[in-house]
Structures are given as C-alpha cells and as structure tokens.
Specification:
The complex is a heterodimer of chains A (about 170) and B (about 350). Chain A is α+β, with helices and mostly antiparallel strands and about 170 residues long. Chain A is built from five helices and five strands; from the N terminus they run E-E-H-E-E-E-H-H-H-H. Among the domains of chain B are: about 5-55, Uridine Diphospho-n-acetylenolpyruvylglucosamine Reductase, domain 2; about 225-325, CO dehydrogenase flavoprotein, C-terminal domain (Enolase-like, domain 1, 2-Layer Sandwich), CATH 3.30.390.50.
C-alpha cells in the first residue's frame, strides 16, 4: 500500500524564462518568469507584494484571492505567463492616497478578523463581490464568499463588514 | 511544480496543430483543475498549450432556437447570462451550486466538462489507482469510499464525475462541439462522459487531439418546472454527495415530459431513459415520483461507507421532482430544502 506508483517521466530541458508585462496596483511591471510560476508566487517572490497570502496553494481557501482585470480569482491556481498584459489589484492596491478602502475600514470597524491571515483574500474577494453586484442579502453574501475560509471563524463579523461596505459603495 | 514548456495558441487551427505535434502536451484554459493536479504530480504534461486567448467566448442564439456557448465562456459569465437565467435557469443554478465565485470566474465551459474526479486515491500518488496508473488497482473499492459511486461502477473504478453544470447539461440534452485533426463533430452530452468499465483512465469520448469548441443547448429549457438540488457535507463549496437535476413539462397534473439527471453517484451524469419514459403520462405527485426513484436506483450498489447514498438519492429524487412540479426550485443561497 505504501509503494509509490509513478510512471517514468520524460526528461525535458529547462524552459527559457518568458518575458511578461503586468500592471500591478497601477504600476507596469516587466517580469521574466519560468512557466510554472503562479501569479501568487510572482507577486510574493518576484514583486515583494507579500500582502497576498499563500494558504492551501490548491484553490480551496481563498487566501490568495486577487483581482485580475477587475475579477476575483485564486492567484495560486493561475500561471503568471497566462496573464501577460493583465491588470492585477492586490490588497496593497486598495487604499488610495493613504486612505483605507471602505472594505478595509469596515473590517476594522466590525473586528472582522482574528489572526488576519485570510483577511487580504477576504477583502479582495469582497471587492470582487461588490463589483459583481449579485449579492444583496446576508445569505447571498455568505454563499458568494464561500470560497474564502476563515479558520478563526470570524464569519459573522466579515458578513457585517461587507454589508457596511456595500451600503457605502 | 513540475517542469514543462509553454506555448500560446493564437487560433483554433494552431491549437489543434500544436497538440497533435506533442503527445504529452495538454491544453490549459482556466487551469483550476489542471494546475492543482500538476502540483500534486497526478498530471505531468511536458508542454502546456494556452488556449485562453482563442475566440471561443461568445454565447449565440442558434437557428433552432437554442444557444451555442463558446468553450471559453467563464462559468460565472454563463451562469449570469440573461438568456441562461431566463431560458435555462437549471444550468445557471447548477453552475452556482458548484465551486466558489473565484473558481467560477476562472473556469471555462469546456474545462468544466473535462475536470477530473476528486477521488482521494486518484490524487494520492502513493496509492494504487486505475484511473491514474492503469492496471495498478482501485484503492477506493475497499477504502474510504464515502463519496464514491453507487451506479455504473466497475471492478476497476468507483470514482464519480465531479461537475454540477454537466448534470444540468445532460438533463437538457445539450451537445458538445469538438474539433480535431479529423475535423469537427458533435457529441451528445449524455455520451460525452464514459462509465469506467475496464478503462477508467478515459473520462470522456473526446479523442486525444480533439478540443472542445462549444456546448449547444437545444430550444427546450424547461424554465417553468425545474430544480437543481445538491446535497453535500457542508452548505457551500463542496462536491455533491448526491445532486438532482429535475425538469418537467406539465399539462395540469399530467407529466408530458420529464428529465432527471443525477450527479455525485456515477462516473458520468446519470440519466436513465426508462425512468423518464415511465414518468410520461403519469400524474405528478409523491407516489409517482417514489416509483421513479425506485426504478432509477434498481441496480444501485453501495460500498462500505457510501451505502447511505442509495437512500439519500431516493429521497432527493422525490424531493427534487416535487420542487420541479410545484415550480419552486431549490434556492442556492438559501439552504433550506423545502
């Protein structure tokens, strides 16, 4: 039962790094990346934008949520090279001129986090949710935020914070 | 992650040419399942061909009164498209019952069809799995099989097909348009996915160098009497233990036409024409629906941990048909099942 079963793999040469262009939080960035670099790793390891968190790295927890061309996605399941030319907004890009984004302020007002590890993803996901305009009720917010896990269990306060921000947007 | 080369296809002909030139290459669109499987070293393509920029992102009305959905339409765009919401609410509901908002923004229509089972042994490269390594054995048959199939299983594999969208597409008689080196063809949705038999490594009847280009919905959308009822271990963002796509066409209480497809119970969306034939002409109601459920589950076979699914499916079928008959489809945000 413990025997590892893996078929022999063909050996392939290390690929050339691929030049790509991303506009991240309003700044155009030129990068050269191996094709397997995820957008999450490109942000954290190549652009030093460590606000976006690596949780499960399998698209199950939502900690890595960022906005690509205005839509919320899991950056851990996105190859950076496939997003050449895209506009990316991370948690670092939400505040304007030192003023917190309404969602950031609402999360503070409602104490919508404990350890804070999921919070960047929660806030970016909520920004996507508000832009989508499909959630009206608390039930709908809960359903459409279900891709963001909070192991501290701050969900009631997260929903309250999003409701406050929705009222202001 | 594993080492691989990357190419970007600029048109459909180039995509087909690139895939035919490299037997260990794979297409990538949304990547939500493939990237995960590559991180787990379950899939190990030597080249990814990026098709995400191909012009397959339109939803168009067909001459027959249906809709043709480009293979690269994101799941969320499809679910919220006005024509889908109005004419095919079952498709919208099934899509919104699956995955998360982020994943639905990424995942493509064609990729949803091609996602692989979430059987834990398929993912665990330390254990035998006939789907991952043909001939190595099935770890699920005598293993942790709570989520596994109860219909159409084989001695080689008891995995389930994971999609919600495909269950609705199967119920509605959708067609899958594909193209490849031998040209274009259409495959009925009910024939697109396979039962495991002794070749569980093949999930679908797509040929190796073919690409899904579109999904076509026929005119009939059953927008009056339908439901998509999904039963799972938590209220959202989980794969189905059992899901039911049910649609009825009623004249008074009499059933003129019935559609019933199940998810979470088999290696493909499960449809049984004999059950739908038996429903036609009957009076809509609990006793009719209970007989239909018993007929559909006549050959169901449970394993050590999933036998509960037979009773669950029986009750879910009856409940779903009641919801469809009453014109009160299951709400996805409000989890109360009525």
């Amino acid at each position: 039962m413990t025997q590892t079963r893996t078929a022999p793999r063909p050996t392939i040469p290390a690929p050339e790094k691929i030049p790509i262009r991303l506009t991240v939080n309003g700044v155009e960035m030129q990068l050269k990346l191996a094709p397997w670099t995820t957008l999450l790793d490109a942000l954290r390891d190549h652009l030093d934008l460590t606000g976006t968190k690596k949780g499960c790295d399998h698209g199950q927890c939502g900690a890595c949520t960022v906005l690509v061309d205005g839509r919320r996605i899991n950056s851990c399941l996105t190859l950076a090279v496939t997003k050449d030319g895209a506009t990316v907004t991370t948690i670092e890009g939400l505040a304007t001129d030192g003023a917190l984004h309404t969602l950031q302020q609402a999360f503070i007002d409602h104490d919508a986090f404990q350890c804070g590890y999921c919070t960047s993803g929660q806030i970016c996901s909520a920004a996507g949710l508000i832009a989508e305009g499909k959630a009206k009720s608390a039930d709908e917010i809960r359903e459409l935020m279900s891709g963001n896990i909070c192991r501290c269990g701050a969900y009631p306060n997260i929903v309250a914070a999003i409701q406050q921000a929705m009222g202001q947007s | 992650m594993i080492n691989f080369q990357y190419s970007r296809a600029t048109d459909l002909a180039e995509a087909v040419r690139l895939i035919a030139a490299d037997p260990t290459a794979k297409f990538i669109a949304g990547g939500t399942n493939l990237i995960d499987l590559m991180k787990e070293e379950v899939e190990h393509p030597t080249r990814l061909i990026d098709i995400s920029r191909l012009p397959l992102k339109n939803i168009e009305e067909t001459a027959e009164g249906g809709l043709r959905i480009g293979a690269l339409v994101p799941n969320s765009d499809l679910a919220y498209h006005p024509l889908i919401e109005q004419r095919y609410p079952m498709v919208a509901s099934a899509i919104l019952a699956g995955a998360s908002a982020q994943l639905r923004n990424m995942a493509s229509t064609g990729g949803n069809l091609l996602q692989r089972t979430r059987c834990c042994y398929f993912y665990d490269t330390a254990t035998p799995c006939n789907k991952r390594e043909p001939g190595s054995g099935c770890s699920a048959i005598a293993g942790l099989n709570r989520g596994h199939a109860i219909l159409g299983t084989s001695d080689a594999c008891i995995a389930t097909h994971p999609s919600d969208m495909c269950v609705a597409l199967a119920a509605l008689d959708a067609k899958v348009h594909v193209t490849g080196p031998a040209g274009a063809r259409a495959i009925a949705m009910v024939d697109f996915h396979r039962l495991p038999g002794d070749t569980p490594q093949r999930d679908t009847n797509l040929e190796p160098n073919e690409i899904v280009t579109a999904v076509e919905l026929p005119a009939r959308g059953f927008a009056a009497n339908w439901t998509y009822l999904k039963i799972r271990d938590r209220l959202s963002y989980a794969f189905a233990l059992v899901s039911i796509a049910a649609a009825l066409e009623l004249e008074g209480d009499t059933i003129n036409e019935a559609r019933l497809a199940l998810g979470g119970v088999a290696h493909k969306p499960w449809r049984d024409p004999s059950v739908e034939a038996a429903l036609r002409g009957q009076s809509a109601g609990r006793s009719t629906f209970t007989s239909a459920a018993d007929l559909l589950l006549r050959d169901a076979k449970g394993f050590e941990y999933n036998a509960f699914k037979i009773g669950l499916a029986r009750r879910a079928i009856v409940r779903a048909l009641m919801q469809a008959a009453a014109g009160t489809p299951q709400s996805q945000p409000n989890k109360k099942i009525r």
